[in-house]
């Protein structure tokens, strides 16, 4: 579904209007830009009251996601309207262009902000966000599906949800997770992690008294999405989410050449941390190339 706003929000089409990708793209091509003021709070209220209703195509069992695209600071209270949506379990992604207020974007967006807040200098640069934003959105929906497949009701109460996920000690193959437990300690935690560009999700189940985890055997130079879900006897609390990239593998350094003869050379180098083998390639340099 899509709505445009200025001082008067306008629904361009509802969630139930189109059923194929091509139809949506054609509707986008025919869309006329709506100029005017920037009443973001009013727009978010419009989306809640008009677009996220069953008669507009919103399915009760489906995850509710709102992507806010704005090029200016709101002229009304966007934070209050956004909080109303978030309290109802609706996640907000905020994308700013040109003169958008980044502090306001961070107020409006859902946690974690490193996944839900984006800002670019001009409209053509929005294309650079498409890949990552698509992966993040699809991952969020998959996580929701995984939770629902366990046939456990979801509880969004803050007293049942952990906070303050921190990712530290990142190496090429590992990272360390810590978080603050909820007011009511859970029975267990379910930690799900996988590469943002696609991959089989892996999960770890921890006792509810534990609030940290060391992840190992990761792939180097890879962006990982991490989620922490508290599990109670009858409900699952809201999950914490974070994203970070593993470091590249360390490289050998200080290559030196010695003991030259007509058909041999000796090479030496400083070791690469963690390397178990080395592959040495050599070939004759083309004429005129540096030795």
How does the SSE layout of this entry go?
Elements: E1 2-4, E2 10-13, H1 21-29, H2 40-51, E3 65-70, H3 78-87, E4 91-97, H4 102-108, H5 113-116, E5 117-120, H6 130-149, E6 163-168, E7 175-180, E8 188-195, E9 202-207, E10 212-215, E11 223-231, E12 240-245, E13 253-258, E14 266-270
Parallel strand pairs: 3-4, 4-5
Antiparallel strand pairs: 1-2, 6-7, 7-10, 8-9, 8-11, 11-12, 13-14
Helix pairs in contact: 2-3
Give a verbal description of the structure.
With 291 residues, the protein is an alpha+beta fold. Helix content is 21%, strand content 27%. It contains six helices and 14 strands. It has helices at residues 21-29, 40-51, 78-87, 102-108, 113-116, 130-149; strands at 2-4, 10-13, 65-70, 91-97, 117-120, 163-168, 175-180, 188-195, 202-207, 212-215, 223-231, 240-245, 253-258, 266-270. The strands form five sheets. The chain has a four-stranded antiparallel beta sheet with strand order 9-8-11-12, with helices on one face. A three-stranded parallel beta sheet has the order 3-4-5. A hairpin with a 6-residue loop joins strand 6 (163-168) and strand 7 (175-180). Helix 2 (40-51) runs parallel beside helix 3 (78-87). The radius of gyration is 25 Å and the shape is globular. It starts with a strand and ends in a 21-residue tail after the last strand. Residues 151-156 have low confidence and may be disordered. It comes from Spheniscus mendiculus. It is found in: Secreted, Extracellular space, Extracellular matrix. Pfam families: fn3, VWA.
């Amino acid at each position: 579904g899509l709505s445009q706003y200025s001082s008067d929000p306008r629904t361009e089409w509802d969630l139930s209007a189109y059923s194929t990708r091509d139809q949506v793209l054609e509707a986008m091509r025919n869309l006329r830009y709506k100029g005017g003021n920037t009443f973001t709070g009013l727009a978010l209220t419009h989306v809640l009251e008009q677009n996220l209703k069953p008669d507009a195509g919103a399915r009760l069992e489906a995850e509710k996601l709102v992507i806010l695209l704005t090029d200016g600071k709101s002229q009304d209270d966007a934070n209050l309207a956004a909080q109303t949506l978030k309290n109802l379990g609706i996640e907000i992604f905020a994308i700013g262009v040109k003169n958008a207020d980044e502090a306001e974007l961070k107020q409006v967006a859902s946690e974690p902000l490193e996944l839900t807040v984006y800002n670019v200098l001009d409209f053509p640069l929005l294309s650079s966000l498409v890949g990552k934003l698509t992966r993040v959105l699809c991952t969020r929906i998959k996580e929701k599906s995984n939770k629902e497949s366990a046939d456990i009701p979801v509880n969004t109460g803050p007293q049942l949800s952990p906070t303050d996920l921190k990712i530290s000690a990142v190496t090429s193959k590992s990272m360390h997770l810590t978080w603050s437990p909820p007011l009511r300690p859970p029975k267990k935690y379910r930690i799900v992690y996988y590469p943002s560009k696609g991959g089989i999700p892996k999960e770890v189940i921890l006792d509810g008294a534990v609030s940290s985890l060391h992840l190992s055997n990761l792939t180097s130079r890879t962006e990982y999405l991490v989620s922490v879900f508290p599990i109670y006897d009858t409900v699952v609390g809201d999950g914490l989410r974070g994203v970070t990239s593993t470091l590249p593998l360390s490289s050998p350094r200080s290559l030196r050449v010695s003991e030259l003869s007509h058909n041999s050379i000796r090479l030496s180098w400083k070791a690469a941390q963690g390397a178990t083998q080395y592959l040495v390639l050599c070939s004759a340099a083309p004429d005129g190339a540096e030795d």
